[in-house]
Design goal:
elongated, about 130 residues, mainly alpha, about 0% strand
């Protein structure tokens, strides 16, 4: 069974030809490839959004804006910056573990799909042998 990480152009073309010939196994392989590609894209999205950062105060007020930002930053430094930094670090560690777990889950799914394909091939082979007897 050809999966996402080992599908060179020739295998893709062969799979395409089998799908066009209405081969149900080829359609399943194509579904598996699409499934893994979707999972990998979702993990990439999660990874991109996983990091938290401290909030920077900004203002669009031309004259007083920089002063307001400076005052807000000073109050934030006194009131909550140290607690916020600790929470951000803790959340970023958790997010990194989630991303790692998701990547491992995708890799496991890929291996399991490949194994299921091998087992399906073996069952078909056994059925052909049983039919020929």
């Amino acid at each position: 069974m050809a999966l996402l990480s080992d599908t060179p152009s020739a295998k893709i073309q062969a799979l395409r030809a089998r799908v066009l010939a209405d081969d149900p196994q080829a359609r399943q392989e194509l579904d598996d490839i699409a499934y893994l590609a979707t999972l990998q894209a979702l993990v990439t999205d999660v990874e991109r959004e996983a990091g938290l950062q401290e909030f920077e105060f900004v203002s669009s007020q031309p004259v007083i804006g920089p002063l307001l930002c400076a005052i807000r930053s000073a109050v934030n430094n006194i009131a909550s910056k140290w607690v916020t930094r600790a929470l951000i670090q803790q959340q970023n560690k958790f997010n990194a573990l989630v991303v790692h777990t998701l990547r491992e889950t995708v890799a496991l799914n890929q291996r399991l799909l490949a194994r299921v394909g091998e087992l399906e091939d073996h069952v078909r082979e056994l059925e052909r042998e049983a039919d020929s007897d």
